Amino acid sequence: MIKDKLPSSFFNPVSILGAIIAAIASITLIFLVILTQTQATYNVYMDVFVYIVVPMFLFMGLVLISAGMIWKRRKQKKNLAASEKSVFIFNLKEPKTRNSIIIFVTVTILFIMSTVIGTYETFHYTESNEFCGKLCHKVMLPEYSAYQLSPHARVNCVDCHIGNGVNSFVKAKVSGIRQVFHYLGSNYPRPIGTPLEGLRPAKETCEKCHWPQKVYSHKLNHFKYFLRDSANTEWDIAMDMKLGPSTKLSGTSRGIHWHDDPGVEVQYKANAKHDTIYWVKYINKKTGVEKIYEDEETKKSSAELALLPTRTMDCMDCHNRPAHEYRSPSFYLNNLFATGKLSTSIPWLKKVAMDALKNKFSTTDSALTEIRNRMRTKYQNKYPLAFQTYEKQIDSAATIITNEYLANAYPEMNINFREYPRNIGHLESDGCFRCHNDKHKTADGKKITKDCYNCHDFLKQGTLDKMTFCDINNSVKWLHPIELEEDWEKCSECH
Ligand code: HEC
Ligand code: HEC
Ligand code: HEC
Ligand code: HEC
Ligand code: HEC
Ligand code: HEC
User: Which of 210, 314, 316, 317 most suits a substitution to test ligand 2, by most atoms within 8 Å of the C-beta?
Assistant: First the structure.
């Protein structure tokens, strides 16, 4: 009889319920593990069950068994005390005592093992890109999709987002749990606000793989643009990006990566989005020289400044989109032309596509149909001759453009290149011009320079039939594709 084999304290409703739950959970777990190992396709939800939900039930079952037994024991003891027969006999020959010891030891070992393995697997699982990127697919899909096209597609989300150490681990899990609730309640911001609060400093993330002492000397950028005229005229610019120091007859410049040189520190105070910078402090740690630059247009009183947090500039103030970049229509259309995916022989294609992408779409589905419709309508109304000749090509171009749009904008999350600007450069958002705009000045009038040739030289520029060149270490004078009035301040006014 089973009653003779198990300790009497097991026979109480709570422990029996616990045993049933634990048994069902164990069988389910074995079944699911076999299933996940044999299944060819990967399923995130299955992993959530295997690593989180089912082990939670198993754990609950085991807790219930023990709780029931303790409770029953106490009750039995009380009864015994009442009848004054409280003599505990510890006799290994007694089958009940033997069985209860065997059960106790086995269950404890199983429990410890499953807890250790379970915790390890659960931990690993919550650190995986699938967990970060796919589980909350509505929320994180944009980042996950953009990430797979980035130079960091082989770097795990957690390597940049969490960093090493127990402290950051605990913080991440606590905020993770909060985020799961926001996700379930569907009350998360769209888009998620940036800059992210509490992102680990670059020293603990980026600098594990890249280090500021490593000098990236110069970099050659070769951009191809296509103008909005009937011929989609190509306009090329080759630029020498002065990442590291350079020496010329006119003197030595320190280069772009100088901001992060271990010998200097650049601090700033800004608005919440960090797109307006009020106050910049430059500290030379070796000489002790300090300079404070203030924006003359948005000048704040010292009381107002004291309330704002001070941020020390690091990699992420410029490389703010290292793994999930959302690019502008102008950028990806230029790339589609440059790689031959769109043909420059379709008249006005760049212009028509730019116009079609100008106004936002409210949903992915509406973008899927509307981009094509807008393009067709524009051609029919404005360039009917081109439409007659190229209708088929225009339709297939629309499909390519729509796909590219969907890789760079996520209407449901309100994500696009304006919401998540890229701080490298200054064309469509202010980027470097947030500080380098000739408006940030010291008390004695020194400016953070907007001098174009401080950051890059132009080695080649113009249309294919009218290109100007110069040798390296020199620069041709910058020329805008169409003549600009004198009084412009920022490229982003128009672009
Ligand atoms: C190479 C480092 C790096 C990797 C890898 C990375 N991120 Fe990020 N991520 C960042 C930085 C830096 C920001 C901060 C942007 C800011 O504050 O302006 C950020 C911001 C975000 C944001 C806030 C919204 C946004 O788009 O800016 C989300 C959500 C996010 N990351 C999710 C992910 C997910 C999911 C993965 C993996 C699929 C991932 N990240 C991989 C560096 C990284
Ligand atoms: C786990 C290692 C790792 C971490 C962490 C990491 N990177 Fe990288 N990063 C790489 C590798 C590897 C490459 C080269 C990829 C290639 O050339 O395809 C790279 C490339 C880059 C590039 C050049 C991209 C390009 O288009 O050529 C930049 C910029 C960069 N990383 C910045 C960052 C920043 C900023 C962070 C922190 C937010 C960071 N990285 C974190 C490994 C890492
Ligand atoms: C002041 C802004 C700024 C800061 C701060 C900054 N970078 Fe850069 N970085 C740039 C610019 C601009 C480029 C050139 C980008 C381009 O032309 O595509 C660049 C290029 C790079 C590249 C590519 C080099 C190559 O030759 O392809 C890497 C890698 C990189 N940065 C890593 C870092 C890391 C790591 C940090 C932090 C220690 C950092 N950067 C800090 C502005 C910055
Ligand atoms: C938060 C403000 C800030 C931002 C943003 C910023 N810089 Fe700077 N930058 C400074 C300050 C301050 C100096 C030093 C001015 C001085 O000499 O006192 C500086 C100096 C430089 C220099 C060195 C000039 C020399 O003397 O050789 C270069 C090059 C440069 N920045 C490029 C960039 C680029 C490229 C970006 C954008 C990717 C950028 N900066 C973004 C604040 C900023
Ligand atoms: C503080 C440094 C800095 C200054 C000053 C600066 N630039 Fe740039 N510029 C950059 C960086 C960084 C990029 C981005 C390269 C990239 O996208 O990889 C860039 C990109 C460009 C591009 C290519 C546009 C693009 O993003 O496709 C042009 C053209 C250009 N700059 C012209 C100018 C002109 C003209 C001036 C002077 C009015 C100027 N720049 C001043 C840093 C600077
Ligand atoms: C007053 C408005 C205005 C300002 C300011 C302006 N642009 Fe432009 N830009 C234009 C117009 C208009 C075009 C022509 C568009 C076309 O034909 O595709 C253009 C075209 C360009 C192109 C080639 C087309 C393309 O695909 O982007 C580049 C590169 C460019 N501008 C860079 C800059 C830079 C860099 C700055 C700042 C230093 C700047 N522009 C400032 C209006 C402006």
Answer: 210
